[in-house]
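User: Can you help me understand a structure? I only have the sequence.
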Amino acid sequence: MVEVIHDVACTVCGCVCDDLTLHVTGGRINVAERACSLSEPWLLEQTDASVVSTQVEGKKVALEVAVRSAAEILRESRAPLVYGLSSSSTPGQRAACRLADQLGATIDTTCHAPSVMALQAVGESTSTLGEVRHRSDVVVYWGSNPMKSHPRHVERYVDAPGMFVPGGRRDRHVVVVDVERTATAEIADRFVQVEPGSDFEVLWALRAAVQGVELHENSIGGVPRADLLAFAERLKTAQYGALFFGLGLTRHGVPKANVEALLRLTTDLNAHTRCTAHRMRTAGDMAGADSVLCWQTGFPFSVSFSRGYPRYNPGEYTANTLLESGEVDAAILVGSEGVGKLSRAAQAQLKSIPVVVLDSPGAKTCWTPAVHFTTAVYGIHRPGTAYRMDEVPIPLRKVLDSSLPSDEEVLAAIGHSIAAQS
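Assistant: Let's start by predicting it. Here is the structure, written out as tokens:
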């Protein structure tokens, strides 16, 4: 028997497309309709994962034994770290925050800190992606290549017709700003190539042009003055502009300052038209992790409970900094995908301390953690909630049966075991 499940949400990238149709046979997904080049292979490799797999020092043990071992490690720790959360969902992220509070730990996510810090400093003019689809006639991708990183983004929010742009792509002007020509630049109406490290100067020049300030240089950041003036005029005369920015904006110069400049440009444009800015979130539920931490602690990342209440200090309480300085004596990773974002020194320190890892089936670490739990996948084995890149919550449905515990269940069990041992 083939079970056909409609309106399934995919969490592989920040788009969280929720219009997929899956065909399930014999505990596997055999067909994934409307899945993109990133999500289709991931979905087709998912199984019912009926065998519970928990390990202590690389040896398989019962779930209860692994929970007690993890609880003992964390209970004895004086400076624990909870890190990751982007592969989880709202229930798991909430449980991770509760455990960090119980332990007096520091909790940090794999979010892109410069973007969050920039919008905290200067604010953010933004909207839902639905508003972009129905209203925008000018779309800018700055430091982002969605044709590779978010394959259906252009299809759903640029090519698709909207209420006030009935022609879809035909009625939209697409601009790509990057240091090199990308696949997205090939389909754009205008490609603006900036010199590496010159995003801030180009953005500031655009702000000046939008405000009517004369530009004296013939070229700024590798972009001719005439092109900058034409770009600024196109933005000012748009019916509705949408600026999407990715990690490319923060790879050179001062990352926070670059994002601040783009957000300030968006604010300037709102004196002439309607314009919004949007972060191109990367893989997993990063927006959800930020939102849940804000809801639980008042802060989006880098939160310390060491004094019994939440304190926020990016840099001091950032996972990478704490590990590099040797200030962590035990860690629990809610998803190991964030390890690759750490520096070599931080990764080396992580491998030298006892680590508890909660990971989905098939995920592998480059070292043997002290305790390893294989957990159910939200949106595949468990229902949950994922936040789209515009921070709209999308419900996740169960697609396959599985006896694997969720990370919420494992984290709650560890917390109960710590309380019982105290």
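Now, to help you interpret it: DSSP finds 15 helices and 21 strands in the chain. The chain has two domains: 48-111+284-421, 114-279. Let me know which part you'd like to focus on.
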